[in-house]
């Protein structure tokens, strides 16, 4: 969305989908809203950057089995700040080469397993922690973009 001649908002989402029967997974799902600005806009080349908040998690959905409902669930939450820079070069009318570099840092949920040996048996305990971490599943993206 354009705010002014040099400023705009960008909504960005990415994830790694997989389906292993009976589970649909959207791993590393990330969505962000960035306020962006053109740094350079000359002839066929544009350079810009932006910053904004992001939210990430893993999303799962099990298949319906024997009349039971399929529920969506999620884990490994995180929230933080995303900064990105991009380069755009016009190849031909409304077709661009687009290179984007993302840097995400925020507080993320993670688990640490502890193995306990007592009375001749072994047990594993999992403890939830929140810590400052990077959330970069994709540092650099190269794409072709076409305006409709």
Please, could you describe this protein's structure?
This protein has 148 residues and is mainly β. It has one domain: Porin (Beta Barrel), CATH 2.40.160. 0% of the residues lie in helices and 80% in strands. It has no helices and seven strands. Strands 1, 2, 3, 4, 5, 6 and 7 form a seven-stranded antiparallel β-sheet that branches. A hairpin with a 2-residue loop joins strand 1 and strand 2. It is elongated, with a radius of gyration of 21 Å. The model has no long low-confidence stretch (mean pLDDT 84).
Summarize the structure.
The protein has strands at residues 7-20, 23-42, 45-62, 72-92, 95-118, 121-134, 140-146.
Relevant terms:
single chain, 148 residues, mainly beta, Porin, seven-stranded antiparallel β-sheet, 7 strands, 0% helix, 80% strand, elongated
* Tally of helical segments: 0
Average pLDDT: 84
- Structural class call reads mainly beta
Rough shape? elongated
Helix content: under 10%
What Rg is obtained from the alpha carbons, in whole angstroms?
A: 21 Å
Secondary-structure element pattern, one letter each:
EEEEEEE
**Tally of strands:** 7
Q: How many domains make up the coordinates? A: 1
